[in-house]
Amino acid sequence: MTFNIITIFPDIFYSYFKESIIKRALKNGLIKINIHNLRDWTEDSHKTVDDKPYGGGIGMVLKVEPIYKTVQFLKKERQKSKNKIQGQARYGAGKKTKVILFTPRGKKFNQRMAYQFSQLDQLIFICGRYEGVDERVAKHIADVELSIGDYVLMGGELPAMIIVEAVARLIPGVLGKPSLLKERISKEKGFIEFQQYTRPEIFSPKKRVKWRVPKVLLSGDHKKIEEWRRKHKKIIASRS
Ligand code: SAM
User: 2-168 — its CATH code?
Assistant: First the structure.
């Protein structure tokens, strides 16, 4: 899975992707993350990526041309590398690219979408800024307009990091044993979450107060533990 992120603030991403599980997944070649500076796709000496909105109003709008050029380039590159390795089993037919435009007006992201995205082989993210992105990007370039919730952020960079995390952890091998991951994905493609505890068995924050781990989890009886987990589970958003 390759994540291609188009942004005017590439530095936002570098430290984040250098940590923890994402770092390991990158090192092990399970995912690839490429950050593309939209300014590299401009043609004027000022590297202009935005302009005033037609009809007036506050703020600036990201222009369509550099976004179009970046997306076209990424799609062509992908096609070239696919042609090169055509016939190799690891590139199953039907796998493909989705171009995602972040906007608070978009479809709300959920776990089922994360699962669907994890089945693709490339995601291209367009991170908006300022007053947003020329609407022709939504109409003619993006496959999906995506929101991460009903609030307005300053840019699409945090949404991009959120989608990378939610999707990457569904790629077999990223979190550890692929078989354990399978058990956690529900039939409806939601993610099964349950309560977790770790040592100590009893935590005493003050005198005569004891916070205990449920006995069943200490019992070693796997059947009972399974039952308890089933009773306390929650399937995280499987509707789309
Ligand atoms: N007026 C713009 C619109 O309706 O799309 C929103 C502009 S917002 C200040 C700047 C950028 O932040 C957006 O273009 C989008 O990429 C990103 N953004 C803000 N809130 C978001 C959200 N809830 N979900 C996804 N992206 C968001």
Answer: 3.40.1280.10
- Where the chain has pLDDT below 70, the residues are 85-95, 238-240
Which is it for the CA torsion 235, 28, 88, 100, positive or negative? positive
Query: Does the CB atom of residue 102 touch ligand 1 within 6 A?
Result: yes
> What is the model's pLDDT at position 91?
42
Q: Which atom of ligand 1 is nearest to the CA of 131?
A: 7
Instruction: Answer yes or no: is the C-beta of 131 below 6 A from any ligand 1 atom.
Output: yes
Spatial distance between the Cα atoms of 230 and 158, rounded to a whole number of angstroms: 33
β-partners of residue 202 are: 212
Evaluate whether 52 touches 59 at the Cβ level (below 8 Å).
Answer: no
Domain ranges of the chain: 2-168, 183-236
Is the distance from the beta carbon of residue 152 to the nearest atom of ligand 1 less than 6 Å?
yes
For atom 21 of ligand 1, which residue has the closest CA?
104
Atom of ligand 1 nearest to the CA of 105: 4
The ligand 1 atom at the shortest distance from the C-alpha of residue 151 is 23
- Alpha-helical regions (H) of the chain: 11-14, 20-27, 64-84, 111-118, 135-140, 157-168, 178-184, 222-231
111: nearest Cα among 187, 189, 171: 189
Nearest alpha carbon to residue 63 among 72, 55, 54: 54
- Terminal CA-CA length for the chain: 22
Rounded distance between C-alpha atoms, residue 70 and residue 68, angstroms: 6
Q: How many angstroms is it from 43 CA to the middle of ligand 1?
A: 25
